[in-house]
Design brief:
With 74 residues, the chain is mainly alpha-helical. The chain has one domain. It has three helices and two strands. Helix 3 links the parallel strand 1 and strand 2.
C-alpha cells in the first residue's frame, strides 16, 4: 500500500473544523454561486488543511474558491 511505503501521509483537520467552514461557506455564498454540497465540502476541507492553491475544473467551485481568496489552476 502506498501509505505504508511512505508515498502518502495521513492527515486530518481539527474535529468539527470542516463542518464549521462548510456551514460558513454555505451561509455566505450558496445563493451567489448555486453551490452543491460536495463543492462546499471539498473547498472547506482544503481551507482547513491550509492550502493556498485550489485545483478544480468545476465553474461554481472555482468561483467560490476565488471568492475566498484561493489561487486557482490555470
Amino acid at each position: 500500500m502506498m501509505l505504508d511505503a511512505g508515498a502518502f501521509m495521513e492527515i486530518s483537520p481539527p474535529e468539527g473544523a470542516v463542518w464549521e467552514s462548510a456551514q460558513k461557506l454555505t451561509i455566505l455564498h450558496s445563493s451567489d454561486f448555486l453551490l452543491r454540497s460536495l463543492d462546499v465540502w471539498q473547498l472547506a476541507f482544503a481551507m482547513e488543511m491550509g492550502v493556498n492553491r485550489f485545483w478544480s475544473f468545476d465553474g461554481r467551485q472555482r468561483r467560490l474558491a476565488a471568492a475566498v481568496g484561493l489561487e486557482l489552476n490555470p
